[in-house]
Amino acid sequence: MTAPPLPAAVVDAAVDWLVHLWSGEATETSRAQWQRWRAADPLHEQAWRHVEATDARWRTGAPGLAAAIASPARAAGRRRALGGMAALAVAGLAVYAGREQMAMRGWLAGLRTAKGEQRRLHLPDGTELLLNTATALDIDFGPTLRRLRLHSGELLIATAPDPQVPARPFVVDTPAGCAQALGTRLTVRHDTDGPAGEATRVAVFEGAVELRGAASVLRIDAGQAARLPAGGTPMALPPPQAPAWADGVLVASDMRLDAFIDELRRYRPGLVQLAPEVAGLRLSGVFPLADTDRILQALVQVLPVQVHVPVPYWVRIGPA
Description:
Layout: H1 8-22, H2 28-40, H3 42-59, H4 65-69, H5 75-103, E1 111-112, E2 119-122, E3 128-131, E4 136-141, E5 146-158, E6 170-174, E7 177-191, E8 199-212, E9 217-221, E10 224-229, E11 235-237, E12 249-256, H6 257-265, E13 271-274, E14 282-288, H7 292-302, E15 305-311, E16 314-319
Parallel strand pairs: 5-6, 13-16
Antiparallel strand pairs: 1-4, 2-3, 3-5, 4-5, 5-7, 6-7, 7-8, 8-9, 8-10, 10-11, 12-14, 15-16
Helix pairs in contact: 1-3, 2-3
InterPro entries: FecR (IPR006860), FecR_N (IPR032623), Ferrdict_sens_TM (IPR012373)
Protein name: Sensor
């Protein structure tokens, strides 16, 4: 008989504890609190062991996918497969690259990060920025306004009081609308081709933000988030999690595999295809983003899937 799924809140708590222990900020007090949480309920311990096992499989130092497909025993078969797939792979990657290029606004932006790259900046007013993967941004500070133009990608922003008098408003413009920070720590993400269409998402961790759409304004306070579709009206979202990507990890808490792969694609160059038969599988864990090959290897160990790499920059994930 299949065991019933763990409550989502319990899995969330286990993942939060793992992120905390990974962060380097754990103290003797917080470690004692973690141990008390584990002992408080058998479900807590079960969730912790599940998340910890996922993390342990990841860290075992298993060879990356490149090493796996380079096995001498598979060389002949691999050469035959590459010969038969070369034209298809080149054509598929060309279509993929063309679609990304057309979708990417701001290709002449003053600041860009590549897929998998992050960059930290300190602005003249004292504001701190962390640019996430595949982000295109312009900075436009003038006499009356501090403005960021986010064309695509994601930012973590810790605003500083403006040294000028009178203080200039701090705004982030995106293709969907405008977010004005009111003494704030926040994330702003703009997806040009997300599953639900082009949209901006804002999450606030300190202070507040006014999110302006085409015809309405929504105030978002600390612990709140909202989504603004292009040309639409701001809509409240569930309370946000801390931005794990700022710590270099991708956190999954009872997450569908298709949603997980959507996030992974933001950090991995090339084409990642997922078979519909496995899209609904669910996983939990903390996956560092520095090596996406090992993340794919971990999927094979924790889910009934197989990962096939016909050519570099082309990954296919299907049922085992």
